[in-house]
Amino acid sequence: MNQKVTIIAEAGVNHNGDLALAYKLIDAAVEAGADIVKFQTFKAEHLVTQEARQCEYQTVNTAIRESQFAMLKRLELPYEHHGPLISYCDKKGIQFLSTAFDEQSLSFLVNDLGVSKLKIPSGEITNGPFLLAHAKTGADIILSTGMSTLADIELALAVLAFGFTKPEEACSIAACQSAYASEAGQQALKQKVTLLHCTSDYPAKLEDINLKAMNTMASAFGIPVGYSDHSEGIAVALAAVARGGVVIEKHFTLDKTLPGPDHKASLEPRELNYMVANIRSVERALGSGIKTFTESEVENRSIVRKNLVTTRAIKAGELWQPDMITAKRSGSGRSPMEYWSLIGNTVVTDLDDEQEI
Prior knowledge:
Blueprint: E1 6-12, H1 19-32, E2 36-41, H2 44-47, H3 56-62, H4 68-75, H5 79-92, E3 95-100, H6 103-112, E4 117-120, H7 128-136, E5 140-144, H8 150-165, H9 173-181, H10 183-192, E6 193-198, H11 206-209, H12 212-221, E7 225-229, H13 235-242, E8 247-251, H14 269-286, H15 298-304, E9 307-310, E10 325-328, H16 339-342
Parallel strand pairs: 1-2, 1-8, 2-3, 4-5, 5-6, 6-7, 7-8
Antiparallel strand pairs: 9-10
Helix pairs in contact: 1-5, 1-14, 7-8, 8-9, 8-10, 13-14
């Protein structure tokens, strides 16, 4: 049986700081059949400097050139909104998830709200102390790997392995590498971490996605992999499922024309519904991987496959010759694979033309 793909509907900052809009995003994720709805938790003053510039896509998508700080300050999800949103998710039967972008927000999610699954974004994969803080919580972790090399990912996993297995000890790169090489460290990573391949551009160009890298990561690290999709449409997300991705994360919005940096690269509710339905279809089609005939094919086998039949009436005692036998669909009889074992042997009973042998 295939593992069910976990679908994360990434609301992110598409609530635009509006609690009512955040509730509507949860409703849309539930309606689509997503497993998780994810937000972002941060304090702008702990995330960026006052002078940090926007990414080019943020300037293009918002049509406003301003500092990252000014943009993100408007997009904060206030701490006091989290509790009501979690309660609403519980009521609606969908899991709440949020990405922390600073240690205060991480502590808030884990210690104040009791969140047991954490998502680390691509931009934090080289932030060793922050990775360590995540691992020390003991929570399950989803780690996005945009902008990363295998070496970046391995070092990040080493820090997580150390935090999982030696949370009370003093940390160093050497100690992290030792934890990563240990049986306990590898076991913890396999049990607690999922890696997401990602291309950190919004929207990501198809030629930059390199989806095969998802499988490279699975082979290199031996832990579950998935895909955080920033491409337009749903084709790449479906391809990721077909290639074995166990988690799919996709941004969504109520309206792509809303102001904000991520709306334009997000799915609208109708598209999110379509993506979820198609992922479930791909899941069903993947099967066990064992190549054999199915129950539905049994009847067709006898109808569609050919069997050995005579080309003319034959008397007992004749020797089978090639021109006496052909293969036709007849519904039953010997497989044509037995053809060579008959040639030259004696016919044991009288046979009519086109009679099954």
